[in-house]
Every structure is written in structure tokens, then in C-alpha cells.
Design goal:
Blueprint (H helix, E strand, L loop, with lengths): L1 E8 L4 E9 L2 E8 L3 E4 L2 E5 L1 E2 L12 E2 L4 E4 L17 H8 L5
Antiparallel strand pairs: 1-2, 2-3, 3-7, 3-8, 4-5, 6-7
């Protein structure tokens, strides 16, 4: 089932865009302020820069180019009333389909 909302991911300590339900799991994309993901001192992934944060915050923010499947209890109850900028919608759509390489 489809879903489109922003929540705090308690497990991963980032804001997340939830876009799909899969039983007890929720597929989500993380929003971060870091330009890359480090694992064991090495760059694992280069994050995708956003044109503008969904909450119109100042500064540079990024999307982690991966769909995470987390349990529904991993998210905060509060739903944020944020919206994607029209320049970022295509980036989100590509990440949803795992087309970003």
C-alpha cells in the first residue's frame, strides 16, 4: 500500500520520508545533512543533494540513496506536514525505484 509522510526514524536517528507499507515494515528514505555515508572510515555511499529541505530549513541537506525497511514501531507518532520542492520530486522517485547509481 502506498504512503506519503514524513516522520522521525528513532532507529536510524534521522528524519525519514515513508513511501510504502509492506506488512509490519515501512519503506523509507532518510534525510541527512551529511554529504556521504561512512562505514569503517571509508565512504560507502555519496548522498544526493536536495534543492531545498522539505521544511524549508536553511543549509544543505541530502537524501540517502537507499530504501530502508524498518518496523512500524521504529517511527515517532508525529507526522510532519512537509512537502517536497518540485525540483526534488524526480530525485525521490528515482530512489524509490532503486534507479540512482
Amino acid at each position: 500500500m502506498s504512503r506519503s509522510e514524513f516522520r522521525w526514524n528513532k532507529k536510524r536517528k534521522h528524519y525519514a520520508y515513508l513511501h510504502k507499507d509492506d506488512g509490519e515494515k515501512r519503506l523509507n528514505i532518510l534525510i541527512t545533512s551529511k554529504p556521504y555515508v561512512l562505514r569503517k572510515g571509508k565512504i560507502q555511499m555519496i548522498n544526493i543533494p536536495l534543492y531545498k529541505h522539505p521544511n524549508n530549513k536553511e543549509g544543505q541537506y541530502y537524501l540517502v540513496p537507499r530504501n530502508y525497511a524498518d518496523n512500524k514501531n521504529s517511527f515517532d507518532n508525529k507526522i510532519y506536514k512537509w512537502n517536497w520542492n518540485k525540483n526534488d520530486k524526480r530525485k525521490v522517485k528515482r530512489i524509490k525505484k532503486n534507479k540512482y547509481k
